[in-house]
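haha ok so turns out i had the wrong file open the whole time. this is the CORRECT one, sorry everyone. sequence first:
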Amino acid sequence: MSQAPLMLENIPALQAEVRALAQERGAVILAHNYQLPEIQDVADYVGDSLGLSQWAARTESDTIVFCGVHFMAETASILSPEKTVLIPDADAGCSLADSITADQLRAWKAKHPGAIVVMYVNTTAEVKAETDYCVTSSNAVRVVEHILREHGPDTEILFGPDMFLGAYVEKRIGRSMHVWDGECHVHAGIRPDDITAVRAAHPGADFLIHPECGCSTSVMEYVAAGDVDAEGVHMLSTGGMLTYAQQHQGSDAPVIVATETGMLYPLREAAPDVEFIAANERASCKYMKMITLPKLRESLRELRTEVKVPESIAERARVPIERMVAINA
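then structure:
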């Protein structure tokens, strides 16, 4: 059954209803940076996937409504097994998380006995349970460097599932790893041609790029060759992009942003005077946009849909996340 379009005049009333329901249920609402603006505006906390799960673990509330995609709600359940974690649409998946299964990872490990498995947090709970260390886009290089220090510079590493983040890490550490051939369909769609065109239209603009983007390794090569001014290029996670915005409040210089377009909203909120420009206006995640105000309202009304990771999996999946957090501390 198709859902009627959300009329502009309905949004404030729906938002007020959602906030009242959250208070009545004693629930906290967490929203990812790529969520719709009207969802971000009603959230208690907006951030990246790991930051949201860590916030979920700290909150005293017993009920968490996770406005993001399914693997993120799973991660919150892993870190907060005693809490009720809800997602407004259970079909909100992730093309990157779907690019590797636990069976595929087990088969990959069997071909490389003794290798250390490093997986992006954008993976299912079952994959995390087969993993040695998790990483985010902001700490992947740091975690891999830690592994090489602890286990030796020749340590064999299986890195996945994002091939662009893997290539970025390889270039930063100066050595190869075994990298899984997976991608986020949205970030992979931001290509070098997009960057060339938008930079030509905005000469001198700073350029913020997420390491998952299909253009990330090309840009690194351009910088190394001197074809792109390194001073204006910033390889950043979504959290890093927000920090950048906060540090550039009041600036009138345009900034090009290469990531999912939902990120433009929190950036503009953080620095209203800065002109943030999408590297590719079509870089929108259909899964993130499946979470709507009416679905959020129904989730709070009916306390659905719960995401619960079985403890037998959660116990093993918690280990690589905690190892990563310990390295970050």
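The longest strand covers residues 27-32.
again sry for the mixup
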